[in-house]
C-alpha cells in the first residue's frame, strides 16, 4: 500500500513538469562533475609519484599479482602514468614474464614464460 503524499511514479497522464526534469538533469550533471573532479584529482596525485616508485609498484604487481583463468596477470596501465609499454615489457621480462599484445582490451596482460 503506497504511503499518502509520496509519489513514486509519474502523475496520471504521464505529464512530468519541466521543473522536475530540470532538477533531475541538474542532479545528474552534478554527479558527473564530482566524478570527473575526483578522477582528475586522483590522476594528478598519481603523476606526482616518482617514476622509480611506479616502476617498483608495477614490478611488485607483476610478481605478486593473481593470475586469471588463462594464467595472465592483468595490469591497468592507467595506474602507471609515465611508464611506456616498452618499459613495462622490460620490467616483465626481468621478472620472467612476457606481454600479450593482441586482444588485451586496453589492459597489460603478462604471462609467465615457460622454461624448457
What does this structure look like?
Helix content is 47%, strand content 11%. The protein has 3 helices and 3 strands; from the N terminus they run ααβαββ. Strands 1-3-2 form a 3-stranded antiparallel β-sheet, with helices on one face. The longest helix is centred in the first third of the chain and has 30 residues. 11% of the residues are buried.
Helix content: 40-55%
First-residue to last-residue Cα separation: 71 Å
Count the DSSP helices.
Answer: 3
Shape: elongated
What's the main sheet like? 3 strands, antiparallel
In the predicted model, the low-confidence regions spanning at least 5 consecutive residues are none
Short descriptors:
116 residues, mainly alpha, three-stranded antiparallel beta sheet, elongated
Tell me briefly what this model is.
This protein is mainly alpha-helical and 116 residues long. The protein has helices at residues 18-47, 51-64, 85-94, and strands at residues 72-75, 97-100, 108-112. 11% of the residues are buried.
Which SSEs are present, and which pair or pack?
Layout: H1 18-47, H2 51-64, E1 72-75, H3 85-94, E2 97-100, E3 108-112
Antiparallel strand pairs: 1-3, 2-3
Amino acid at each position: 500500500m503506497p504511503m499518502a503524499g509520496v509519489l513514486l511514479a509519474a502523475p496520471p497522464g504521464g505529464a512530468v513538469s519541466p521543473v522536475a526534469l530540470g532538477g533531475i538533469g541538474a542532479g545528474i550533471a552534478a554527479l558527473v562533475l564530482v566524478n570527473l573532479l575526483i578522477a582528475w584529482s586522483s590522476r594528478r596525485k598519481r603523476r606526482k609519484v616518482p617514476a622509480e616508485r611506479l616502476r617498483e609498484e608495477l614490478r611488485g604487481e607483476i610478481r605478486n599479482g593473481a593470475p586469471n583463468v588463462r594464467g595472465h596477470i592483468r595490469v591497468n596501465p592507467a595506474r602507471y602514468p609515465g611508464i611506456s609499454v616498452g618499459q613495462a615489457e622490460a620490467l616483465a621480462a626481468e621478472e620472467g614474464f612476457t606481454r600479450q599484445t593482441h586482444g588485451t582490451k586496453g589492459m597489460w596482460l603478462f604471462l609467465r614464460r615457460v622454461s624448457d
